[in-house]
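User: Could you go from structure to sequence for me? I need the amino acid at each position, not a summary. Structure tokens:
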């Protein structure tokens, strides 16, 4: 089967509004791959916080990501509520069609668990930020790499794209570029997630989640290994126009960025990953995203946030992360099959299943309480 999936009208009618409620590979997992990876990162962050004698998350009064976290939690809860209503009132399948949704509490639990990785991404981001990325970089013996990026841009491209783009600067263009950079970047994954969750098979939503998870966590790792501040901080003398952030955008910037978060450009990689997964399952939806995603990539250079090599690295990350998103569940299934309990140990297996489910519920409840606490 090719990269682009085709669905006949009858199949779409069957799965509409219940795509993510149908059975899929991840139903066989006690622990999903994104939960395992996120758990490893959180364990490492807890170890770092203990080593630095600091809390893993910022105190409520000091947290600069509080507002975003609270907003996202409200959005997730609204999505879960709408999902349960749709499942309650949507007509049941016709003769010969089996309802694989499970219904009731199973769907509520699945919906909450499906969206928990997004909260986990925010949690790991905030914990990294609070643990002072600069100190982690210094502990690794690393140093900022801006001068390397400047030399690479000069050697490969003959200059800086952000400098060349100053000829395009105008007030309307600047307003649009700020919108797609600061707002659109966070909207694309949410909109695509809701669309695939409700109108496509469960595998489509799983591919999006895993691809986004791969993009963000690879990006977080490279931020530490290749710290880059960006051209607006390193070569301001080359610009005849610089962009002063209004208080609202300045607040957002402070809430959502690392000190060294340019290589690779996740404002390039993440929207492109979302668009490619969308194209895979709905070409018209991918076409709707296309101009906005391209504008977001352009905004990284227009607003002097990234070197051109950052954008190239972000583009190079896209096929890797989409490939991981498409195949990760299959890889995880084979791994879990290799680690399956011996049939003669059913008692131990049953106990392990219960323990893991308790841990899953605990993680979701803690995430909900954490976000609610920040909202209040």
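Assistant: Here is the amino acid at each position, in order:
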């Amino acid at each position: 089967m090719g990269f682009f999936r085709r669905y006949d009208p009858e199949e779409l009618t069957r799965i509409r509004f219940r795509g993510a409620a149908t059975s899929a590979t991840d139903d066989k997992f006690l622990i999903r791959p994104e939960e395992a990876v996120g758990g490893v990162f959180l364990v490492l962050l807890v170890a770092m916080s203990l080593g630095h004698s600091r809390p893993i998350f910022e105190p409520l009064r000091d947290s600069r990501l509080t507002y975003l976290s609270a907003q996202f939690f409200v959005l997730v809860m609204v999505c879960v509520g709408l999902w349960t209503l749709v499942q309650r009132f949507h007509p049941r399948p016709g003769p010969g069609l089996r309802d694989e949704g499970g219904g009731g509490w199973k769907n509520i639990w699945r919906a909450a668990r499906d969206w928990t990785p997004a909260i986990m991404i925010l949690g790991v981001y905030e914990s990294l930020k609070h643990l002072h990325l600069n100190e982690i970089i210094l502990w690794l013996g690393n140093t900022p790499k801006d001068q390397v990026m400047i030399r690479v841009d000069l050697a490969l491209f003959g200059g800086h794209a952000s400098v060349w783009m100053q000829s395009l600067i105008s007030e309307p263009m600047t307003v649009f570029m700020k919108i797609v950079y600061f707002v659109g970047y966070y909207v694309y994954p949410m909109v695509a997630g809701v669309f695939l969750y409700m109108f496509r098979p469960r595998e489509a939503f799983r591919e999006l989640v895993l691809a986004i998870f791969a993009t963000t966590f690879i990006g977080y790792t490279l931020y530490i290994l290749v710290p880059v501040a960006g051209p607006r901080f390193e070569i301001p003398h080359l610009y005849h126009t610089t962009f002063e952030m209004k208080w609202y955008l300045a607040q957002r910037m402070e809430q959502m960025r690392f000190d060294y978060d340019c290589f690779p450009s996740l404002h390039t990689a993440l929207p492109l990953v979302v668009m490619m997964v969308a194209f895979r399952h709905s070409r018209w939806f991918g076409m709707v995203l296309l101009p906005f995603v391209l504008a977001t990539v352009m905004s990284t250079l227009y607003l002097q946030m990234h070197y051109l090599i950052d954008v190239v690295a972000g583009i190079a990350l896209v096929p890797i992360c989409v490939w991981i998103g498409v195949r990760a569940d299959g890889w995880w299934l084979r791994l879990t099959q290799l680690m399956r309990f011996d049939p003669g140990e059913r008692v131990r297996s049953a106990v392990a299943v219960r323990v893991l489910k308790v841990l899953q519920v605990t993680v979701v409840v803690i995430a909900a309480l954490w976000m609610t606490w920040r909202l209040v």
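One structural detail worth keeping in mind: The two ends are 49 Å apart (CA to CA).
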